[in-house]
Specification:
The protein has about 325 residues and is an all-beta fold. The chain has 1 helix and 20 strands. It has one helix spanning about 45; strands at about 10-15, 55-60, 65-75, 80, 105, 110, 130-135, 145, 160-170, 185-190, 195-200, 205, 210-215, 230-235, 240-250, 280-285, 290-300, 305, 315, 330-334. The longest helix is centred in the first third of the chain and has 4 residues, at about 45. About 45% of the residues are buried.
């Protein structure tokens, strides 16, 4: 017989992580070696499929606090790939221009000259259109390519919404000149409300193209031209050659079915001009793709609360600052 009380068999502290107190953490340090912000959420919870029955929050501070809770909603009826030139991830493919929406940009990286920029390794579509990217040269500890998706109006990224970036990547030794197993990571950068980058964990590549993904929560509060997704070498890596193919950014916390872009551009080396590529392309979602519901919650000063919703992840609401307060804890009740 029920006594009118909920019974939980397990209580689990939600992971909330902020900038590290010391440098040297590979996925939490920027190019200059400084600690970066991550808007206090845990990458582990973003990828989790585990939903609690309820959540229990405790705020011991003298001020109130708001935060976002993320729950699975209805199954997706479609998925959109917001990237352009997904099968041809190379800087300089389109004509120059300030944050051209269709363009990939190199930073501290180069491509081999001419058609040598295309690796002989077969990509998932059977082509040899994977683009070689040389990073970590000349003592540079960072390097990669980035796509300024935030330049699009009215803007793709929405504050507090969850997205997943993915790409197929592998190592190319170039006949023994480089390691077959370079380090690789995916990053999200925003310049508003403050310059900040967050990165995936470091992946160790093999010569076999493998799909890697990174789920993040957008923190942009304005129309930010510089907001972008980047594919880069590992932190403080040595000179290496990475091959990239099949870039995608989509809504939600799964990489989702891959949506190719216009493959007629595959193999193009010379710039083709601006504005010649269609907008984001849509297709059918994967079976595990769900819309993500966002609920903004507020907890009063020196209070605790139980909320009968089933979020698998939490984050700040951006306005409350980047560093997780030590006075705030959230538990999943299972």
């Amino acid at each position: 017989m029920s006594d009118g009380f909920d019974v939980y068999s397990k209580v689990v502290l939600f992971g909330i992580t902020g900038p590290p107190s010391t440098v040297g953490v590979p996925n939490m340090v920027n190019a200059s070696g400084a600690a970066i912000s991550n808007y206090w959420y845990s990458a582990e919870t973003l990828r989790s499929k585990s939903e609690p029955t309820a959540i229990f929050a405790v705020n011991t501070a003298v001020t109130g606090l708001t935060y976002n809770a993320y729950s699975y909603g209805s199954p997706m009826t479609g998925v959109t790939n917001y990237c352009r030139f997904s099968e041809n991830v190379q800087g300089g493919l389109t004509a120059a221009g300030a944050f051209n929406v269709n363009r990939w940009y190199n930073y501290d990286s180069t491509h081999p000259a001419g058609t040598s920029r295309f690796s002989p390794i077969r990509m998932p579509d059977g082509s040899t259109n994977g683009v070689r990217l040389i990073v970590g040269s000349a003592g540079l500890t960072q390097g990669g390519v980035y796509h300024p998706l935030g330049v699009q109006s009215p803007g793709i990224f929405v504050k507090g919404k969850m997205y997943t970036a993915s790409v197929w990547a592998c190592g190319d030794s170039g006949g023994g000149a480089f390691s077959q197993n370079p380090k690789f990571r995916i990053g999200y950068y925003t310049n508003a409300p403050a310059t900040s980058s967050i990165f995936s964990e470091e992946f160790t590549l093999t010569p076999v193209p493998t799909r890697y993904s990174f789920t993040f929560v957008s923190s942009t509060t304005t129309s930010d031209d510089e907001e972008n997704i980047a594919f880069s070498c590992g932190y403080k890596t040595t000179s290496s050659q990475i091959v990239l193919w099949g870039a995608q950014v989509c809504d939600g916390n799964t990489a989702n079915n891959y949506i190719p872009t216009s493959t007629e551009w595959n193999g193009v080396v010379a710039p083709i001009g601006a504005g010649t590529v269609s907008g984001p392309l849509s297709g059918n979602p994967s079976a595990d793709a769900y819309n993500i519901d966002v609920t903004t919650l507020r907890i009063a000063p020196r209070q605790s609360q139980i909320v009968n919703i089933a979020p698998f992840a939490i984050s700040n609401d951006v306005a409350t600052g980047y560093t997780p307060p030590t006075t705030f804890s959230v538990y999943g009740l299972y």
